[in-house]
Amino acid sequence: MHILLTGGAGFIGSNFVKMVLAARPNVRITNLDVLTYSGNLENLSDVQNHPRYRFVKGDILDTATVAPLMEEADCVVHMAAESHVDRSIMDSGPFIRTNVVGTQVLLDCWRRSRGGERVSKQAGRFVYVSTDEVYGSLPLGRPELLFTEQTPLKGNSPYSASKLGGDVLASAYHHTFGMDICITRCSNNHGPYQFPEKVIPLFVTNLIENKQVPLYGDGQNVRDWLHVDDHCEAILTVLEKGRSGEAYNIGGNNEKSNLELTHAILWLMGKGPEMIKPVADRPGHDRRYAIDASKIKAELGWEPTRSAWPKALESTVRWYVDNQAWWRNVKSGAYRAYYEKQYGNRG
Ligand code: NAD
Ligand code: TDX
Fold this sequence. Notes:
Layout lengths: L1 E5 L4 H13 L4 E6 L19 E5 L5 H10 L2 E4 L6 H6 L2 H21 L12 E6 L26 H20 L3 E6 L1 E3 L8 H10 L4 E4 L5 E6 H14 L5 E4 L4 E3 H12 L6 E4 L14 H7 L10 H12 L1 H7 L3 H10 L4
Parallel strand pairs: 1-2, 1-4, 2-3, 4-5, 5-6, 6-10, 7-9, 8-12
Antiparallel strand pairs: 9-11
The structure holds nicotinamide-adenine-dinucleotide (NAD) and thymidine-5'-diphospho-beta-D-xylose.
Thymidine-5'-diphospho-beta-D-xylose (TDX) binds next to helix 3, helix 6 and strand 8.
């Protein structure tokens, strides 16, 4: 099998490439990535010469690049995206371009490469890697409420709205053209090679640099944390065994408030609460995400095995402590300008 992966030089993509090459001796991967600020070939340096791996630098919006790659592929795993909520609040343009229009370009190219109007189910699967953020937000104090695959979709940030656009386009192409499409909706990931704009690598690397950690609002917002290896395994499971046209929630059963998460990181780093800097809240900040992942467990037999708290967090924190050259390189240049714009005047 030959997978065309989009966005494979980012956090989840680079972990996915390594996991699949190791776990599936008959699978080849072509990684199409334009290398935005968050795409980094260093994430893949240990597999760059692997005989079953190939990197192609290109934009998912560029039909001339995408179409020939699709002719060669048996299936598509689409995870290229603009992925950071705070950046989408600064400027939503790149989010609409890549996450909505880019997804449409890929779906149309895949449809054409598989023969046009009505596509046979044998023509090859397209997995759209969506997010739990397409379900909007849950209130605090209602632990019985969880996102299921039936929860109505609602995008509260420009990022979520753009991912939702790609998500409903993927469903529409299945419905209209009979294409073999599955959708995954996962909770917050952590692990190696996450760009240090996201909360866990940002906080850990700030603490190593003896800088305070900027905690938004009252710190009570809740996220469900999953180790990236579990997410990658779930995507592969959906690619191989998912039912065509279905969406699958993926979660870690690990709800933590941002304050709990911050204290856990401080503890692991041997730092005190004086390192917390309360800052102005994120505009429109979703209060709580919580995933009901019973469908993927019942239908496909997947459940998280590497996300148990606090062991999983500890291994992630240790990775950033042990791999300072990687993030110090990333946290230079353009990153500094972003950090200043995002946090400079935030009291
Ligand atoms: P990331 O920002 O680390 O990586 C995104 C990758 O996409 C980068 O390598 C980037 O260069 C590439 N890319 C962006 N625009 C492109 C374009 N126009 N053409 C080709 N490549 C392009 O993001 P991530 O955290 O690895 O997320 C991967 C996917 O998983 C995204 O679709 C995201 O919405 C989804 N997701 C992420 C999480 C999470 O917690 N990180 C959770 C659920 C879902
Ligand atoms: O400096 C910060 N301070 C802070 O308190 C940052 C960057 C974040 N936070 C809070 C905001 C969120 O409640 O931490 C929580 C997590 O924030 P992010 O790491 O930015 O993730 P989130 O907004 O929850 O979105 C993530 O999960 C879903 C990913 O970035 C998305 O790509 C994914 O779809």
